[in-house]
Each structure stands twice: as C-alpha cells, then as structure tokens.
Amino acid sequence: MSESVRVTIVYEPGEDGWIVASIPEVPGAHSQGHTRDEARANVIDALRGILELRFGEHAGVAEAADSEPLELVIGA
C-alpha cells in the first residue's frame, strides 16, 4: 500500500530580489533564496527541521504499545 501527503510551496517576491517560499499547511515552514530552486530547497529543509523537532527520535515521544513508524518522502 502506498500513501502520500501533499503540501503546497507558495513563492512570493521578497525584498532585495529574494524569493520567499512557504508551506501554508505547516505553520513556521518559511524560507527564502536568491532563485526559485534555492528557495524550494531551503523551505524543504525548514520543513524537515520542523518535522524532526516535533516528531524525531529526540522529541521525547513515548512509544505506544500499538504504534508504527511512518516515513514521509519528499520528492520533486
């Protein structure tokens, strides 16, 4: 069985020629870059950091008796 989670990257012009990228579905997932590709890579990195902080092994999450790991793969 294969499932996916879909989010949207929104690009907006920033100051001094920067491109601002955000993921509206994930509060705090914002970044920027000099190019669209750089902004995309940076916002994906920000998303990864948010998820690792919130759900990573070091987040102090207690394992439930009935649980399973879920790995999200971000692709182009």
Any overview of this molecule?
This protein is of the alpha+beta class and 76 residues long. It has a domain at 10-55. It is 26% helix and 16% strand. The protein is built from one helix and three strands. A three-stranded antiparallel β-sheet has the order 1-2-3, with helices on one face. Strand 2 (19-22) and strand 3 form a beta hairpin. The longest helix has 20 residues, at 36-55. The relative contact order is 0.15. The mean pLDDT is 82.
Key structural traits:
3-stranded antiparallel β-sheet; alpha+beta; 26% helix; 16% strand; 76 residues; 1 helix; 3 strands; elongated
- Helix proportion: 25-40%
Specify Rg, calculated over alpha carbons.
15 Å
Order of helices and strands: EEEH
Mean pLDDT: 82
Principal-axes shape call: elongated
Main sheet summary:
3 strands, antiparallel
Structural class: alpha+beta
Report how far apart the termini are.
21 Å
Please write out the topology.
Layout: E1 10-13, E2 19-22, E3 30-33, H1 36-55
Antiparallel strand pairs: 1-2, 2-3
In short:
The chain is α+β, with helices and mostly antiparallel strands and 76 residues long. It is built from one helix and three strands, in the order βββα.
